[in-house]
Amino acid sequence: MARLDPLEPLDDPEYGRHRARQVSAAPDAYPEPDTPTADLPRVDNPDDLPDLERELDEVAQRRGRPPGGRRRAKHSRAGRNLPAAIGVGVALGAVVLASLFVWRPAFLGVVGLAIVVAVWEMVRALRASTGANPPLVPLIAGGLAMAGLAWYGGPDALILGLLVTVLAAMVWRLADGPAGYQRDVTATALIAVYVPFLGGFAVLLAEPQDGQWRVLVTLAAVVLSDTGGYLFGVLFGKHPMAPSVSPKKSWEGLAGSMLTAAAGGALLLWLLFDVAPWWGAVFGAALSAAAVLGDLAESMLKRDLGIKDMSNLLPGHGGVMDRLDSVLFTVPVGYILLAVLT
Known about the structure:
By secondary structure, the protein is mostly helical. The chain has helices spanning 13-25, 53-62, 69-73, 82-101, 105-130, 136-153, 155-173, 181-206, 211-236, 251-273, 277-305, 320-341, and strands spanning 240-242, 246-250. A hairpin with a 3-residue loop joins strand 1 and strand 2 (246-250). The chain starts with 12 loop residues before the first helix and ends with a helix.
């Protein structure tokens, strides 16, 4: 069998298996002519890769390198370039806040741009991984229309926009003939519901007079959930929550997500909307649960497609869809709960 570079990141078993298949298929594509290979372990079964991490670290130490390798040292335990991720996150947050508090209609443009990029990423991923061919033009046009309809017409108009988008895409797809039609229409419906329809609830949140605060508390719950989950997962995470879908998520991280979001929700809703703290805690916990489910749903989709990220547009994050996964599931829950509580 071909050799494996001990500096490759092996935190993710699925990545390890994918890397083993790459190396096995093209062993000469990764030459290291000046590196002695006698001390490298041999791999006969890709499923054994996670168990070899300790041995690979020992090999790296014998070669005078830090355990885990220089490439992994640049990344956090979560497997991301943490400085880049923080920088991009701060920049995105600044754009959203500026659109909300400087000129609120600009938020509609921010949501529209996010929908366009996310739809493109989804279409691209499905085409490359499954051979499905959902029509891009009607999905983008319909996504922008749904955002506008939500802003000017409310939830009923958003639902109408979804129906028109799917129907238009079905008609558009007829031009390519019957081969694969059912598969392509199914993929089209998935994208239309997952991205622009759910994303339209962010527009519904922002439309009322106090919409900027509604969006703020909803996004704050997502950020607090992600932060609490990361910290608790790194410090205390021992019991995997869904190892076949997202190996790094733990039950301890989920508890941290919900506790942090509940505390933040209790404080923010009390300060901004005069809602009783216990209802604010329910709001935060519910949004945290939705955020985790959204993250798991996209992780499952990416596993099924055999990809790590939807794209590489955002350094340290992946693609736009990799940042919207939690938000898309959270904004409908936030919209409904705030409509009830305020």
